[in-house]
Amino acid sequence: MIGVLLLMSMLQPTTFSDDFEEGLVRWEATDENAWRTKETPFGKVCSLYLQSEYEPPHRSPYNILLIKDEVFGDFELTALARSTKAKYEHRDLCVFFGWQGPEQFYYVHFGQQTDDHANQVFIVNKADRTKISHKTNSGTPWDDKWHKIRVTRVDGVIRTYFDDMANPVMEARDLTFGTGRAGLGSFDDTGQFDNVVIRRL
């Protein structure tokens, strides 16, 4: 399946973008009922408003929304993100990439506080998620406002950014998975996303 998507991606523009004004037609969720678009004063946004009724095969996020019919190798993803969960230590939103299937993928966990299971870059490889980041900060300062997030991967080097687009807050290096699908979501919280742009590098 990934091979077919790779061929299709070669025929696609180098940039994917979605502001959700046309709904979620370009996305596929682990639980379609947990996601919807929400009208706001500045247009529609993507809203994860319920916990997904999805059980991953290994300890890993429950709420996953993947881009349909496209795969990405080296890339830069930017988006606006807003947590809608009350503050607690693992309050989070996530970015997924290198997706081969529900048992094999990477994800960035932007978590409120940092430990070995939060605010890190992780790999899921036919086992429970494992931290691969060698650098992170003390935590992602979620509040009720919108924030800009950015994730890049080039030659296996993964860097993540939060509001400050010049200085990465997490770094990792891993070459286990190459080209794969990408998406948004959370481990087990709610949140909103808008203005997603992915550039193939």
What is the H/E order? HEEEEEEEEEEEEEEEE
Number of helices: 1
Say how many strands there are: 16
Q: How much β-strand is present in the residues?
A: over 45%
Termini separation: 22 Å
Low-pLDDT runs of 5+ residues are none
What does this structure look like?
By secondary structure, the chain is mainly beta. It is 4% helix and 47% strand. The chain has one helix and 16 strands. The strands form two sheets. Strands 1, 3, 4, 6, 11, 12, 13, 14 and 16 form a nine-stranded antiparallel sheet that branches. A seven-stranded antiparallel sheet has the order 2-5-15-7-8-9-10, with no helix packed on it. β13 and β14 (170-173) form a beta hairpin. It is globular. It starts with a helix and ends with a strand. The model has no long low-confidence stretch (mean pLDDT 94).
What's a quick, concise take on this entry?
The protein is mainly β. 4% of the residues lie in helices and 47% in strands.
Secondary structure layout:
Blueprint: H1 2-10, E1 15-18, E2 27-29, E3 35-40, E4 43-48, E5 63-67, E6 75-83, E7 92-101, E8 104-111, E9 121-125, E10 130-131, E11 133-135, E12 147-154, E13 157-162, E14 170-173, E15 181-186, E16 191-200
How would you describe this structure in keywords?
mainly beta, globular, 16 strands, 9-stranded antiparallel beta sheet, 201 residues, 7-stranded antiparallel beta sheet
